[in-house]
Description:
Blueprint: H1 2-9, H2 22-50, H3 76-90, H4 96-121, H5 130-150, E1 159-161, E2 169-171, H6 175-194, H7 202-219, H8 222-228, H9 239-257, H10 266-283, H11 287-293, H12 295-314, H13 324-330, H14 335-355
Antiparallel strand pairs: 1-2
Amino acid sequence: xxxxxxxxxxxxxxxxxxxxxxxxxxxxxxxxxxxxxxxxxxxxxxxxxxxxxxxxxxxxxxxxxxxxxxxxxxxxxxxxxxxxxxxxxxxxxxxxxxxxxxxxxxxxxxxxxxxxxxxxxxxxxxxxxxxxxxxxxxxxxxxxxxxxxxxxxxxxxxxxxxxxxxxxxxxxxxxxxxxxxxxxxxxxxxxxxxxxxxxxxxxxxxxxxxxxxxxxxxxxxxxxxxxxxxxxxxxxxxxxxxxxxxxxxxxxxxxxxxxxxxxxxxxxxxxxxxxxxxxxxxxxxxxxxxxxxxxxxxxxxxxxxxxxxxxxxxxxxxxxxxxxxxxxxxxxxxxxxxxxxxxxxxxxxxxxxxxxxxxx
Length: 360
């Protein structure tokens, strides 16, 4: 929005040309989302507390979590507001990729909001039925996947890029739709499973979003893409502004979500952020690298799958409790230790992912 205004004002002063620089608008996107979070956060927390929209805690979970009962949740709405406003202000709204990532994120946010509303406001402990949650997630993800497949403008947009290898790119055909579906839905639910401790999910989300912003910038620049031997995706660089908004909004939310948390994001935030990371990874053709950088999300999800499978097949549990972060809590690790160590793991994995840009 402001880009269009800057373009108009350049006829009066050439200094407004500075807003054409993608890096500047990405930085402004980060700062805008951060400022919105700081300004809106306290009022939102007070309102959630006033309406008693508080966290429900499982009786079979770690005892330390019992004190969290009643902590305001659905704070993910704050993240979505900050991301949306920042993106609309600083991104090129004529770019189709901007609308793909923004609308996908908001659609998953709506699904999460309905689930939270049913559980926390209507006091329906089951929330949105699992089959309906997955139905709507699938409907949105498949719709996005088909649109991207039919609107692809170059073969590179439909290839699977294998990290660490310069010349390996697999043409997916309609398999692209299936891959995109699994990446978006899988990522959305993986982040949701990880969101079980104060700040555990949001900082890895920020770090991965920042790394994906680097990939988006490089993929959208023909010279950088050629130099780094990654696919050039025309106009995808504009996604950097959206990724920057995630970084700013996430850091702003962490201010209130850090241990001990004043607010939780709820499904409205977790489902949306997971989908956002997934769709960005798809657009920049780095699904496998995202699998590495989001390793914390992956291991949390795998722990749940293994736990359920083991219990159904053998009647035994592999972990003391799933997802994995609860297992370490029940082993006696203090909550802050679990959180910080998972953050450290994410830092390492993100650096490994970024290294694939040069190791080819």
